[in-house]
Amino acid sequence: AEAACLVHPRKLFLEMGDKDPLFDYQKSEREYERIKQICGDESTDWVDFIAFDGEHEFYKEDCHIDRLIDCLR
């Protein structure tokens, strides 16, 4: 959570497969909650977290890429 907060206020997208054999997505969910505690719930528009149906892979939907491109414009 602390390392993620170093990115603030730039956009951060956290994507985690719920069947990842290397990392437990529930730990990532807890760290996301810690980010919100550290930075305050009202300031978390810069960070998004999604646990998707998948393994150790990229999220295949384009929603985060599209949002990132919008942020760069």
Distance N terminus to C terminus?
A: 27 Å
Low confidence ranges:
none
Given the structure, what is the number of helices? Answer: 3
Spatial strand sequence of the major β-sheet:
1-2
Broad shape = flat
As a percent range, the share of helical residues equals: 25-40%
Strand content: 15-25%
Cα-based radius of gyration, to the nearest Å:
13 Å
Biggest pleated sheet: 2 strands, parallel
| Oligomeric composition of the shown chains | single chain
The SSE string, one letter per element, is HEHEH
The overall pLDDT, averaged over residues, is 88
Structural class: alpha+beta
What does this structure look like?
This protein is an alpha+beta fold and 73 residues long. It has 3 helices and 2 strands, in the order αβαβα. The protein has helices spanning 2-5, 25-39, 63-72, and strands at 12-17, 47-52. It has a two-stranded parallel sheet. β1 (12-17), α2 (25-39) and β2 (47-52) form a beta-alpha-beta unit. The protein is flat.
